[in-house]
Amino acid sequence: MRRAIALIVLLAVGAGGVGAALQAVARQRHYRELMTRGDAAMRADQTYAAIEAYSGAIALRDDSMLPYLRRGQTYHRQGNLEEAARDFKSAAARDATAPRPLEELADVLYQDQKFKGSVEAYESCLRLDDHSARLHFKLALAQYRNGDLTAAMATLDRVLRLDEQMPDALYLRGVCLRETQRPADAIRALERAVALSPGMIPAREELADLYAAAGRRDAELEQLQALALLDKSHIERQVAVGLAHARVGRWDLAVLTLGSALEQHPDADVIYRALGQVWLERPRDDRTFLSKAREALERVASNTGATSDVLTLYGKALLQDGDAERAERTLQEATRRTPVEPSAYLLYATAAERQNHFNAARTALIQYGSLAPDPGEFSARAAHIAQLSLKMNDAGAAVEWLRKATLASPGDGGLLAPLAEAQLRAGDREAARATIARGLAREPTNAALLALARRAR
Fold this sequence. Notes:
457 residues; mainly alpha; Serine Threonine Protein Phosphatase 5, Tetratricopeptide repeat; 79% helix; elongated
């Protein structure tokens, strides 16, 4: 009897074990089916079906890295960066030896502009595989975007030791060198990048800017011409070439380049604006060039969306053509468009003064000073504001601005006579006598100061 009971128990245990084994096999088969279904849905770009399949696989095998990785990639394709990052973190936690989840996590965090987290993820990935130049470059890019130029430069050194022919690394190195005020080294790095990858537009753009800053106009023009050939769909490239010709005084080539661009794009405002600028800046001994400048700029300035920059150029052309009244209206409008071209205030002041609108001219000069402060030009501008104040019989303001001018340029004796004049007109004879005395101590024979001294007695 006991033997029979024991046999029954053994049979029951055996049956349970077989059942559990069969269940495990079934679960594994179902897991593989779900993974296959998810992969097929991904290939068909059916992301929601893929997520459903991978989620089912996770429910069956929560300890597996792969379904988390695949679902994270699917969320990434959908643009759901938060869910993608969460799944990549889960995948990495389930297999600490796999670099792929960490790289994918770093990529997602970078795309989400979480650069600090991206740096940390790339560093973790590189601890598992530090022989990949591509991974080191991704880390350098994340470090750069995180504002750590020193770390980015050090990482780029490792990249170039692993692969000295990587143009992207040389380009990023050039950018870092430029931002750390090492333009000569930046140029060398970017030149190497362009030599390895002649079609790299960003590197050529950086080179053109660096050459321009260094005064290497021919080298700048060479890069701009290459960019125009590489990027024919953007007419701004041809415009840049035309304006570069103008900067080095090749006026005919500038007009020819812009004219050719206009033939291809007859309604492009950007070309008319550039042509107007070239005709306006071109040395001239007759009014033909000025007339062409005015005609080209009028076409774009008449648009309701004309920018402050365009209106400023048109106002300048009107002013040079002697049409001060229309120039004043145009330049006043230029000061109202944002972003404001600072020189619009200076030109508006000139136009307003020619129309005897002294208050408007004075206000424009003051506004220019607040918008584009330049210590080197302050005293001259302050003296001009004082002169306009005197024309308005505002002697008190004239005195104040001339005092500011003398403080800014204490060695400029030419400011003392106007200051004394303003003080006399303001009724402050004592201050005027003191100013005159200062001036005569420097220039005892100064006729203007001697005349003022007689008036101040």
